[in-house]
Every structure is written in structure tokens, then in C-alpha cells.
Design a protein that fits this description.
With about 160 residues, the chain is mainly alpha-helical. It has one domain. The protein is about 75% helix and about 0% strand. Helix 4 runs antiparallel to helix 5. The radius of gyration is 21 Å and the shape is elongated.
């Protein structure tokens, strides 16, 4: 009688270097919950910075300085969304960018508080949590990136 739940006994389709097959690599390419949490925080931070951009555009007199600040806020919002997507895809360089852009986002949140947007307090909390979770999940980001790179390699294609 054959047990369908028994572990496989042959290593067919396994990669020569690491002994893992395509199914193992697929499982490794799924982001763990802490990485998904970090991405959600980056997306939430992007939403807040987008709202700060709209606050600047609609409430303040448009001068050259205010226009530059609005463009900076919009670029930071796009960066936050990009960082969220990048860490889910396992891109270490994007995680480094996220840690590097954090002080600029702190200044943007402080400016939002100074102009009267109370949501700056919430965004400051997010801007402290998002990089912290990104740093804690550093190994997970690398693991997802390696697994996705191996899955894309010609040895693991069907």
C-alpha cells in the first residue's frame, strides 16, 4: 500500500548545488508575515505622505518653495510605495533605500505637523516602525530574493 503523505524518496528535479527542487524554492519565495507587515507599513506611510502632499497643494499658497516641497512629498510617497513592493519582491537594494530615505520622511512628517496636519503624529509612528520591521526582516528579504532568482534561472524552468 502506498502512503500518499510520505515524504519523497527520490530527488528528481533537485538543483545540484542546494538539493532543493522547484517546490521548495517556490515556498521560499513567499514572503513571511513579518515581511508582509513591513510592506503594509510602507504602503500606509505612502498613503500618509500622499495626503501630506495633497494638504500642501490645497492649503498653502503656491510659491516656489512650497512647490518644491510638494514635489518632494510626492516623490517620497512614490518611494514609499516602491519600497513596499520592492521588499515583497526580495530586493535588498530597495530595503537599503528605505532605510536611507527614512530621515527625509521624518522631516516631511515634521513639516506636516508644523503646517497643521495632525496625521503627522501617526506618520511619525509609522516612519519609526516601517524601517525597524524592514531591518528585522533583512534575512527574509534576502531569502525571498534568492529564491526568486533561482526560480527565474534556466535550471529551474519547466
Amino acid at each position: 500500500m502506498i502512503n500518499p503523505y510520505a515524504p519523497p524518496t527520490s530527488n528528481e528535479g533537485a538543483h545540484e548545488h542546494d538539493g532543493r527542487d522547484r517546490a521548495d524554492l517556490f515556498i521560499d519565495s513567499i514572503p513571511p508575515p513579518i515581511l508582509k507587515g513591513a510592506a503594509i507599513l510602507w504602503f500606509s506611510l505612502g498613503v500618509f505622505v500622499t495626503l501630506f502632499f495633497l494638504h500642501i497643494v490645497t492649503d498653502l499658497r503656491m510659491t516656489t518653495v512650497v512647490g518644491v516641497l510638494a514635489v518632494i512629498h510626492f516623490a517620497l510617497a512614490l518611494a514609499c510605495f516602491g519600497i513596499g513592493v520592492g521588499i515583497l519582491r526580495g530586493r535588498i537594494g530597495v530595503a537599503v533605500l528605505g532605510l536611507g530615505v527614512t530621515p527625509v520622511i521624518v522631516m516631511a512628517c515634521a513639516f506636516a505637523l508644523w503646517t497643521g496636519a495632525f496625521a503627522g503624529f501617526l506618520a511619525l509612528g509609522l516612519v519609526l516602525l516601517a524601517p525597524a520591521l524592514t531591518a528585522v526582516s533583512w534575512k527574509s528579504i534576502a531569502k525571498v530574493g534568492r529564491a526568486k532568482a533561482l526560480l527565474a534561472s534556466p535550471q529551474h524552468r519547466d
